[in-house]
């Protein structure tokens, strides 16, 4: 049947794999946004810049950190170290942002938090555009993950499989932590009745701060995973964040499960669209968003607030 349409099974499976990889990034990024909005009611427009920071810090660790520290002989920080360090650094930076600026706006309308985080994203992106320009920098695939599998005429790179597997593990782990653990139930309770939770001795402001930092760290984690696949550039976050916001809207603002399922599904749908109707691939997600907003404004998994 596919041959009649001029499509080979190999090209179809290849696009499905590409869609699944893109969907993994959509899921990770929208998960961080959903955590922040669902638990803090903050629309975090800095998310794209934090994704870029994760990738950029990874590239700097491999290429420039030795020069900064005055260490010769090509001192480098490995990919696997940055997979842990970059999210921690971006999370710490985000905690400072939350403590110094964002917390002052919690009692105001959501629009003020959106404008503040959007402004911060422009400042961060502008600084890195000034230092590194807009041309992309390549990051090599880690030596341990080079090569791939050949299955029925298809070549499946190990690194792509690693990204999909690791993204699924992190997404499921985050969902399980928030929905199935005692600390996760405390986080959810803190959004509904923070004063009651404080009466039981829980430090709600600290919990909110750490939640924001963890949500931003997820964006940086996605950035580290993206570095060997996409070009590392100062504008890589702004090119992706609009699509990710569409994913969050479709899944339901604040829905953890909705972000994961919708992110993966839309990545696959986008990949299939590139096979059957390539001209519509760049707008397919937004068409779906319009239809969802028309018939289910709260999103597929969301609840009316």
Q: Any idea of the CATH topology?
A: ABC transporter involved in vitamin B12 uptake, BtuC
- Net shape: globular
Strand residue content: under 5%
**Structure summary, number of beta strands:** 2
Let me know the largest β-sheet: 2 strands, antiparallel
Tally the helices: what do you get?
A: 12
Radius of gyration: 20 Å
CATH A-level architecture: Orthogonal Bundle
Output the CATH class name.
Mainly Alpha
As a percent range, the share of helical residues equals 55-70%
Q: Strand order within the widest sheet?
A: 1-2
Distance between the termini: 46 Å
SSE arrangement, N to C: HHHHHEEHHHHHHH
Q: Give the integer mean of the pLDDT values.
A: 87
Structural class: mainly alpha
Question: How would you describe this structure in keywords?
Answer:
ABC transporter involved in vitamin B12 uptake, BtuC; single chain; 305 residues
Summarize the structure.
This protein is an all-alpha fold and 305 residues long. It has twelve helices and two strands, in the order αααααββααααααα.
Task: Please give a structural write-up.
The structure is a single chain. Helix 2 crosses helix 4 (79-100). This protein has helices spanning 9-40, 47-63, 65-68, 79-100, 110-132, 158-180, 182-192, 194-199, 204-226, 238-251, 256-276, 284-295; strands at residues 148-151, 154-157. It is mostly helical and 305 residues long. The mean pLDDT is 87.
């Amino acid at each position: 049947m596919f041959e009649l349409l001029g499509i080979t099974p190999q090209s179809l499976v290849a696009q499905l794999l590409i869609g699944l990889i893109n969907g993994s990034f959509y899921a990770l990024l929208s998960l961080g946004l959903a955590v922040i909005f669902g638990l803090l009611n903050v629309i975090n427009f800095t998310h794209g810049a934090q994704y870029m920071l994760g990738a950029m810090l990874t590239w700097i660790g491999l290429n420039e950190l030795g020069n900064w520290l005055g260490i010769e002989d090509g001192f480098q920080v490995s990919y696997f170290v940055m997979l842990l360090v970059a999210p921690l650094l971006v999370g710490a930076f985000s905690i400072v942002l939350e403590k110094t600026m964002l917390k002052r706006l919690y009692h105001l309308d959501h629009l003020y938090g959106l404008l503040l985080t959007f402004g911060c994203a422009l400042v961060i992106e502008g600084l890195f555009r000034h230092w590194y320009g807009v041309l992309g920098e390549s990051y090599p695939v880690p030596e341990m993950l080079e090569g791939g599998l050949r299955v029925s005429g298809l070549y499946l790179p190990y690194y792509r499989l690693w990204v999909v597997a690791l993204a699924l593990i992190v997404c499921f782990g985050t969902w399980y932590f928030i929905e199935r653990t005692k600390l996760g139930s405390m986080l959810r309770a803190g959004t509904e009745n923070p004063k009651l939770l404080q009466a039981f001795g829980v430090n709600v402001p600290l919990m909110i701060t750490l939640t924001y930092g963890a949500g931003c760290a997820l964006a940086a984690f996605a950035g580290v995973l993206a570095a060997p696949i996409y070009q590392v550039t100062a504008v890589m976050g702004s090119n992706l964040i609009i699509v990710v916001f569409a994913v969050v809207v479709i899944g339901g603002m604040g829905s953890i499960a909705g972000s994961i399922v919708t992110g993966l599904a839309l990545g696959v749908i986008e990949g299939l669209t590139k096979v059957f109707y390539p001209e519509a691939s760049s707008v397919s997600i937004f068409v779906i968003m319009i239809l969802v907003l028309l018939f289910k404004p709260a999103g597929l998994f969301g609840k009316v607030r």
